[in-house]
Amino acid sequence: MSVSCQKPYVHWEAFSAQIRGAFDRFREVVSADAIGTMNLRYVNLIEIPEREVTLSDYFAFYPTLPPELPRVPAGFITGCEFAFHNNRDNCRVELTDAVPGSTENNAFLLNIDYYLTEGQQIPPDGVADWLEIAHTHVRDIFEACIKDTLRDRFTIREEVPVAAR
To answer: Crossing angle for the helix pair 127-145 and 12-29, nearest 10 degrees?
Structure first.
């Protein structure tokens, strides 16, 4: 089962209600004693209207290059995985370059994938709690990965949390 949200984004409370509703319908058709695979993934396409971008100006999470390497790579990917809740859950964070919508811009993908680790399970009645925990960690990681200079570029309506982008 997959539930996705694209523009226009809704706030987390509305999106999580959609996920829970879809899961309730899923449970009407499929009987399971436990859930062994769950992900909450945010694919954040971030476009900056500048031809040259210094990653450290916008991101707190970015690749660092030794002086012996060329200063501007043709492309990049950097990532980490973090464990949560006694290794029950992991969260993979990746920042990569992306194709911008305009040649005047730079674009980046900040992917945050929070998931139940292999061999772990939760009861079906625990899905809503797991989603809230996952969302809290994803939101906190997103906020830790960006700097105020990038945060200030977002046009945020009150009902759209930054982490939903």
So the answer is: 140
Report yes or no on whether pTM surpasses 0.85.
Answer: yes
Show the tokens assigned to 90. Answer: 């992991």
In the chain, the amino acid numbered 42 is Y
Q: What is the dihedral of CA 159, 90, 57, 52, to 10 degrees?
A: -100
The span from the CA of 152 to the CA of 165, in Å, is: 14
Q: What is the biggest distance separating any 2 CA atoms in the chain, rounded to whole angstroms?
A: 59
CA distance 117 to 35: 11
Beta bridge partners of 84: 89
Distance CA 41, CA 115 (A): 8
Task: Give which of 47, 89, 51, 86 is closest to 72, Cα–Cα.
Answer: 51
User: Tens digits of per-residue pLDDT, 103-126?
Assistant: 999 999 999 999 999 999 999 999
**The Cα angle at residue 28 between residues 23 and 31, in degrees rounded to 5:** 90
What is the rounded CA–CA span in Å between residue 52 and residue 38?
38
DSSP state of 59: B
